[in-house]
Amino acid sequence: MSFKYKILGYFFKEKSKTEVHLVLLKWSSYYKDLSTVNQEIFQIRTLIFIKTTRFLSDPNFYVSPEMKIVISSAFTQVTFGLKIVALSKFNTIFIAPSAYTYQKINQLFDGDVNIKTNRVNLSWPAVERGFKISDDALNLCIHEFGHCLIIENSKRNYMGIFNENNLESYKNTAIYFINEVRADEHSFLRNYGGENLMEFFSVSLESFFEKPNEFSQKLPKLYNSLAQLLNQDPRKKEHPKLN
Ligand SMILES: [Zn+2]
């Protein structure tokens, strides 16, 4: 483990790291497959995210430590190859007991990133489904955190979350493939990704993590460009980080 994580590790109790470990062995197939050293780094990054995030819910809906760990692990997973360990704008997460609606919008939501309130809203049953079925390219938390990363990256004047060149080359690749998704009803990426580039990124992320082998075979160019952007390749289960 690098010096940086050794030092950071001292800030958290062994008890907390063990708790994260046990919860994630149960919930996260990504975590389960990591090498021991990477699991230790993952625990520390997840604990930092929890510490820097405010979790809210309805007064009559209890959010357990386990739920916080599961949700936070999705952020750690997506950013495992990057320097960023926490969000600065969207550091409030509201957990709803079921799908919800907004006034004046006649639609049920499982989750959304609200740029007016700077809140990430997630419905717990959808979070649960996302983790329990880990190979269907549907994971609400990965999806919503994808939106957070793109929005926060755009607000940073210097030291972006992503490497500029990698983001540029990802964008060019995405613009090409979004048209394929729009034109093909049976495309590998689900059609919702055709809505716009923002949704395309999040939908791609879900497949990138949940169906990496199929993704890399069917759309190698897009897969590689995402791998560069996130500095990780989920096919390398024990050591996904590239550099
Ligand atoms: Zn979305």
TrEMBL record:
<dbReference type="GO" id="GO:0008237">
    <property type="term" value="F:metallopeptidase activity"/>
</dbReference>
<dbReference type="Pfam" id="PF06167">
    <property type="entry name" value="Peptidase_M90"/>
</dbReference>
<dbReference type="InterPro" id="IPR042252">
    <property type="entry name" value="MtfA_N"/>
</dbReference>
<protein>
    <recommendedName>
        <fullName>Zinc-dependent peptidase</fullName>
    </recommendedName>
</protein>
<dbReference type="GO" id="GO:0005829">
    <property type="term" value="C:cytosol"/>
</dbReference>
<dbReference type="InterPro" id="IPR010384">
    <property type="entry name" value="MtfA_fam"/>
</dbReference>
<dbReference type="InterPro" id="IPR024079">
    <property type="entry name" value="MetalloPept_cat_dom_sf"/>
</dbReference>
<dbReference type="GO" id="GO:0004177">
    <property type="term" value="F:aminopeptidase activity"/>
</dbReference>
